[in-house]
Amino acid sequence: MGSIYLIRHGQASFGAENYDVLSPLGIQQASALGEYLDRLGIRFDRCISGDLNRQRDTASATLQRMGAGEQQPAIETDPAFNEFHADEVIRAHMDDLLAVEPEAIQILANAASHRAEFQRLFQYVIYRWASGEHEKQGLQSWQSFVDRVRAGLQRVLAQAGKKDHIAIFTSGGTITALLQLIIGVPPIKAFELNWQIVNTSLSRLKFRDQDVALASFNSHVHLELLKNPELVTYR
């Protein structure tokens, strides 16, 4: 059987003007992952990333620490593995959000200093969106996002060798969509798992032809071994 390693990007710049930039901690997380994989002797036959900066830079920082002196696979990009547009989802549901939280705009504008409140509001919006019962004109639906991710996975499987080890550097929402597809949980249950996905964590899929199974989820031993709780982040 072959293996697909789903790797969430390192910590990005939450609360900054441009979220899509790895923080110094995010680079450290990716480097730690590369060193850990190198110690395990894991080598990738292919490396695929979404085309977001935080995904590609995580891939680059990880590969730099693997197999010193060895040729690493080129980082291919496939936007099917990009994250959904969370800011667009929030804006589309803003009127509904303000109805239950009149100070939502202030909380969202100062998310870095209101992390717990931001998560509460973000979860409310995401659950409405993922339910499929509150569609908004012009906004990509959760099902459409899942279909995009499914198409990306099918492309990977169609091109894979039987025993390939393939890395996919992606984001939490994309991993959530894949969990829904592979283990058959409803979207809300998949998102309950989403909130637990650690930056640079590994989730492993085993595949034979088009058959795919979840072998492990959200492993972040590479961070735990460093005995620094600050390295374990979720956004």
From TrEMBL:
An example of a GO molecular function for this protein is: hydrolase activity
Show which residues constitute the signal peptide.
Answer: none
Q: Name one Pfam family in it.
A: His_Phos_1
Q: What name goes with this protein?
A: Histidine phosphatase family protein
Organism annotation: Stutzerimonas stutzeri (Pseudomonas stutzeri)
Keyword set, alphabetical order: Hydrolase
Q: What's the domain of life for this entry?
A: Bacteria
Matches recorded under InterPro entries:
His_Pase_superF_clade-1, His_PPase_superfam, Mito_Ser/Thr_phosphatase
